[in-house]
Design brief:
- The chain is of the alpha/beta class.
- The protein has 2 domains: about 220 residues, Spore Coat Polysaccharide Biosynthesis Protein SpsA, Chain A; about 70 residues.
- Helix content is about 50%, strand content about 10%.
- A 7-stranded mixed sheet has the order 3-2-1-4-6-5-7, with helices on both faces.
- Strand 2, helix 2 and strand 3 form a beta-alpha-beta unit.
- Helix 5 runs parallel beside helix 8 and helix 9 runs antiparallel to helix 10.
Length: about 325
């Protein structure tokens, strides 16, 4: 099969027939063998009934229905597990992503050898309250991930080589960072294609401004686990050791300063009356706790069944 199209959806009953007809026309015009997997993320409208109707009239349409709303990342992960195409296309169900982009995305994966191609909605039909935070968010994601050629990490329209989705796990709200997840899994040939962004035709957006806050937190999680997930002592141990050393030196200085004033005949205060003593002591305690956190993290990492689970691309045996 050439292409699997995965469409996560939540309360998009009105747009689904038009989207399915549009996808089918593009596939037919380009002679692609394909499947469309609609993943209903616990919709409360008639979305699932529409998916059942579409599947009855088109054998290429498949559907998965969650019992309740879990989020876009679980929906995508479920679709990835069921996709059978050589190229996986993801798109939103609200008709803001154009299926007309599919042939070129397919070509970039199969002919140009990209592992992942992300859409870039250069011209957006969104209010400033959404576009400005999006630009800041993408700028931060580029710097942290090191993928400098992408302008729109959160674009729902993406294409993947099938092998890529077999080696990444999407959970929580990590769908925003699919290129970063792919890079961490060793698939670093990541491209971008400028795509058409269409104004929403039916319903309203399901995302609020809280996604930007959660997005930054998820980005920090990915950065930390990617850099220190297998070696937590390198972070906690180093930081804890530095804090303990600073606190220890500060305690010595406080004590030495008192002794100096004693022998010089100057007035002095007790060490325990100095606020710097307690600041230094607190720093030492925090440093010890951080070091122990790194030690416990190492114990957990070393006992993980996946501690030596490395992705091997090729091997030669005789």
């Amino acid at each position: 099969m050439d292409i699997s199209v995965i469409v996560p959806l939540y309360n998009e009953a009105e747009s689904l027939p038009e989207l399915e007809a549009w996808i089918a026309r593009v596939m037919r015009d380009n002679d692609f063998s394909y499947e469309v997997i609609f993943v209903d993320d616990g919709s409360t409208d008639d979305s699932w009934k529409v998916v059942e109707s579409l599947a009855a009239s088109n054998p290429a349409v498949k559907g998965v229905r969650f019992r309740r709303n879990y989020g876009k990342s679980p929906a995508l992960n479920t679709g990835f597990a069921r996709a059978q195409g050589d190229v996986i296309i993801t798109m939103d169900a609200d008709l803001q992503d154009s299926p007309d982009e599919i042939p070129e995305l397919y070509r970039m994966i199969t002919r140009e050898g990209y592992d992942l191609v992300s859409g870039w909605k250069k011209k957006r039909y969104d209010p400033l309250s959404k576009t400005i935070p999006t630009k800041l968010f993408n700028a931060t994601a580029r710097r942290v991930s090191g993928i400098r050629n992408l302008h729109d990490f959160n674009c729902g329209l993406k294409a993947y080589r099938a092998e890529v989705v077999r080696h990444i796990e999407v959970y929580g709200d990590m769908h925003r960072y699919m290129p970063y997840l792919a890079k961490m899994a060793g698939f670093d040939k990541i491209g971008e294609k400028e795509v058409q962004h269409q104004a929403r035709k039916y319903g309203k957006s399901k995302f609020g401004l809280d996604r930007f806050v959660n997005g930054y937190l998820d980005l920090m999680t990915l950065w930390f686990t990617g850099k220190f997930g297998r070696k937590p002592m390198h972070f906690f141990g180093l930081l804890g050791s530095l804090m303990f050393l600073v606190g220890f030196v500060a305690v010595i200085l406080v004590g030495a300063l008192k002794l100096y004033h004693m022998y010089a005949g100057d007035s002095y205060i007790l060490v325990t009356d100095s606020p710097y003593f307690y600041i230094a002591l607190t720093t030492m305690l925090l440093g010890t706790q951080l070091f122990l956190a790194g030690f416990i993290g190492e114990l957990i990492a070393r006992n993980s069944p996946k501690r030596n689970d490395y992705e091997i691309e090729e091997e030669i045996k005789h």
